């Protein structure tokens, strides 16, 4: 094995690679959390391949096996190539094979019988491998290592599902007499060992000191300028991050600088490459073919060709989605442009780390979107550069996650009392409910699955539960894809613009009874955004602490949401073209929330009169939702909020922020624990924005059900200042510093009165 590594040109491993390999060979589960291009793959491949090599001497040639899990098919295919290259000198001792939805059926039997290094994803483990474990018995009996790559991506509800899938894997392995060691690779993350332990349910050793050499990285924060245009309620509109990124990519290409622009959406990637190509045509027509887009949805051979052209220098500029972020080896880049904060510091450093991979200096530019969080970060660089990356948030005890996995586990092997410790303390509450629903039946000492259908089909580990809505092309009957039932009302309502593989479709009708949305191809000059109304009631308060005269609480809530209309916004400029009413039924969600109340005395101190109370609470709610991704690994679309001048359950002015997933995802809990830091940053984000009365950079929300009305910027700053003056001492301090609350000029009143949904 050492000779094989040396043949690849590596004389000595870095210290962190050696340490991780040592722990793995000693039988300790380990997480390697070091920077991009620090050789994490080698850290786990050396012990794994070494063990497979020894196992190949067994009579059946399969004395040891290993399982590799990646969040994407592309990464598994990339890793398979790396393993084949590294293990080439070892002959046939290492037999790697990809086993996913694309693997032909005739190959699958060979993989089960003969492969000793199987590369797959959590979805395939959940639906394909575990339910048919008897066919995998010889592989599972010899399983020595489970490699979990890019484990920081397993967060929120998806991460909670994966945590339960891994517990099911450990249980089935124990049935065959094996107890595999878990090797996890993560981008730099806060408390990686804690996150890895929550994910696997096992004690995990942390290796986080990066010993690999790095060139200098110059990091620029770029805020697009304000334009003459006006958006909702007359708010000023900034030039879009998309247009600015396209300009930067064009300039870098003209100068011969090899660059990648990372964009959050597939449409954004296509748009940036098209704009850059048009601008390059004006400068030098030969440069047009040297810029392209890269995203999911392309054929594998198209993606490989783009990666090859980028490696060789044939391509100078690439506009890419995160499909390129995860582990796919792209070396020799000079610059990375990041179009909008990617949601977490972990992702930001992952993307920025793609530049300068050969040890030379490099440039990274973060272009801010019109959003409270992006605005805050460009004005407070210390929040990016002086703070550790986030903790990965997941909650395996969420009953909505736990229940379907207990059913799946019982279908794999009858569930016994001894198994309950493995699946966590939530089992005591969930099992009686599953018995009452006649999904499980207790016979003597074990629970059995009672249905004829497959238990693994009860849940889609990437979705939010419920029956997915199928998106069908009206003229041809072709199935284009699916959307989670929870998201269907706001994304595929009648009149919505739907994007699929670079093509634009208009939704003609949404049939909720049959779970079908009919679409037809079109080229509308606008995008659509759904508007909704939200009401919230408190079911149970788990924890509350005094906050001056007010309270900070965390507990269970019921959210009733109804999509009532949608806006049409002009592409590029974001200008609002009109609003159309919709008639959709309300939906309810039981989830977890954090909420804070304020008293009459606190309102008097903050000089908040009844006319501006609703607008002040609403503005604080919007901005706090925009800021929470800085403290929990979530997206603003994973969370919702409601603000009410007088809530019937608290009898006080109240602001709620809740998890947008059944049973919660851990985000509201994280907000509760970092409330002082989180709300300090929220206040800073509003106060430091240069607009007069509020804009999308501070208090306007792209998903506000009330059309961003009422909102009161100065009232929100004064309210949060008063609240923070009496904040309990936190376990950690937030980014940002106290600014003068009354440094904002002018004063305007805004009519208020109804609860506002974020």
Automatic annotation (TrEMBL):
Chain residue ranges for the region called Disordered: 724-758
NCBIfam families noted in UniProt: DECH_helic
CDD domains (UniProt xref): DEXHc_Hrq1-like, SF2_C_Hrq
Helicase C-terminal domain segment(s): 248-400
Name of this protein: DEAD/DEAH box helicase domain-containing protein
Species annotation: Streptomyces murinus
UniProt domain Helicase ATP-binding: residue ranges: 21-207
Lineage top rank: taxon: Bacteria
UniProt keywords, alphabetically: ATP-binding, Helicase, Hydrolase, Nucleotide-binding
Name of a matching Pfam family: DEAD
GO terms of biological process kind: interstrand cross-link repair; nucleotide-excision repair
InterPro entries named in the record: DEAD/DEAH_box_helicase_dom, Helicase_ATP-bd, Helicase_C-like, Helicase_put_actinobac, HRQ1_WHD, MZB, P-loop_NTPase
Gene Ontology MF terms in the entry: 3'-5' DNA helicase activity; ATP binding; nucleic acid binding
């Amino acid at each position: 094995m050492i000779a094989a590594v040396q043949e690849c040109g590596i004389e000595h491993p870095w210290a962190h690679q050696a340490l991780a390999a040592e722990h793995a060979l000693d039988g300790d589960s380990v997480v390697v959390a070091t920077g991009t291009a620090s050789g994490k793959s080698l850290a786990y491949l050396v012990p794994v391949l070494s063990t497979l090599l020894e196992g190949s001497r067994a009579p059946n040639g399969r004395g040891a096996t290993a399982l590799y899990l990646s969040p994407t098919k592309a990464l598994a295919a990339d890793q398979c190539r790396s393993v084949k290259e590294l293990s080439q000198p070892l002959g046939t001792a290492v037999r790697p094979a990809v086993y996913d939805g694309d693997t032909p059926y005739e190959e699958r039997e060979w993989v089960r019988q003969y492969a000793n290094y199987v590369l797959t994803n959590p979805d395939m483990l959940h639906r394909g491998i575990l339910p048919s474990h008897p066919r995998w018995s010889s592989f599972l009996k010899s399983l020595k290592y489970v490699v979990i790559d890019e484990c920081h991506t397993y967060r929120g509800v998806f991460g909670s599902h994966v945590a339960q899938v891994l517990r099911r894997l450990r249980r089935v392995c124990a049935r065959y007499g094996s107890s595999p060691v878990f090797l996890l690779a993560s981008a730099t993350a806060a408390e990686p060992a804690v996150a890895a332990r929550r994910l696997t349910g096992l004690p995990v050793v942390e290796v986080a000191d990066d010993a690999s050499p790095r060139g200098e990285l110059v990091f620029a924060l770029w805020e697009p300028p304000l334009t003459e245009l006006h958006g909702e309620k007359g708010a000023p509109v900034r030039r879009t991050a998309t247009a600015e990124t396209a300009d930067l990519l064009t300039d870098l290409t003209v100068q011969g600088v090899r660059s990648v622009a990372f964009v959050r959406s597939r449409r954004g990637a296509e748009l940036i490459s098209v704009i850059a190509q048009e601008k390059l045509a004006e400068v030098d027509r030969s440069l047009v073919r040297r810029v392209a887009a890269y995203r999911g949805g392309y054929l594998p051979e198209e993606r490989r060709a783009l990666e090859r052209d980028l490696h060789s220098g044939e391509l100078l500029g690439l506009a890419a989605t995160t499909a390129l972020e995860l582990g796919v080896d792209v070396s020799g880049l000079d610059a990375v442009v990041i179009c909008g904060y990617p949601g977490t510091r972990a992702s930001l450093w992952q993307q920025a780390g793609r530049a300068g991979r050969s040890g030379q200096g490099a440039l990274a530019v973060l272009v801010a979107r019109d959003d409270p969080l992006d605005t805050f970060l460009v004005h407070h660089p210390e929040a990016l550069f002086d703070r550790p990356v986030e903790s990965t948030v997941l909650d395996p005890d969420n009953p909505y996650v736990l229940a379907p996995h207990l059913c799946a586990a019982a279908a794999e092997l009858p569930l016994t009392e001894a198994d309950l410790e493995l699946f966590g303390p939530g089992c005591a509450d969930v099992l009686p409910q599953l018995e009452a629903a006649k999904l499980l039946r207790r016979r003597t000492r074990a629970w059995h699955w009672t249905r004829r259908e497959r238990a693994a089909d009860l849940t889609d580990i990437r979705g939010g539960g419920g029956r997915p809505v199928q998106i069908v092309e009206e003229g041809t009957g072709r199935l284009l894809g699916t959307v989670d039932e929870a998201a269907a009302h706001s994304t595929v309502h009648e009149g919505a613009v739907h994007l699929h593989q670079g093509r634009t479709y208009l939704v003609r009708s949404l049939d909720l009874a049959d779970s079908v949305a009919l679409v037809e191809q079109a080229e509308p000059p606008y995008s659509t955004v759904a508007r909704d109304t939200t009401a919230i009631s408190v079911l149970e308060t788990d924890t509350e602490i005094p906050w001056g005269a007010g309270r900070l609480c965390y507990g269970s809530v019921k959210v009733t949401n109804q999509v009532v209309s949608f806006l049409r916004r002009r592409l590029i400029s974001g200008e609002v073209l009109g609003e159309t009413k919709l008639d959709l039924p309300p939906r309810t969600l039981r989830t977890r929330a954090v909420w804070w109340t304020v008293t009459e005395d606190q309102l008097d101190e903050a000089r908040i009169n009844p006319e501006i109370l609703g607008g002040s609470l609403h503005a604080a709610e919007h901005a706090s939702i925009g800021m929470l991704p800085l403290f929990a690994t979530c997206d603003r679309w994973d969370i919702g909020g409601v603000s009410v001048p007088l809530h019937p359950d608290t009898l006080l002015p109240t602001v709620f922020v809740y998890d947008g997933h059944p049973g919660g995802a851990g985000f509201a809990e994280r907000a509760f624990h970092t409330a002082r830091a989180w709300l300090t940053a929220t206040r800073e984000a509003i106060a430091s924005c240069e607009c007069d009365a509020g804009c999308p950079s501070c208090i306007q929300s792209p998903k506000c059900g009330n059309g961003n009305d009422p909102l009161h910027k100065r009232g929100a700053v004064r309210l949060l200042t008063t609240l923070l003056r009496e904040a309990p001492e936190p376990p950690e301090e937030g980014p940002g510093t106290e600014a003068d609350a009354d440094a904002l000029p002018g004063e305007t009143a805004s009519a208020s009165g109804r609860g506002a949904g974020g």
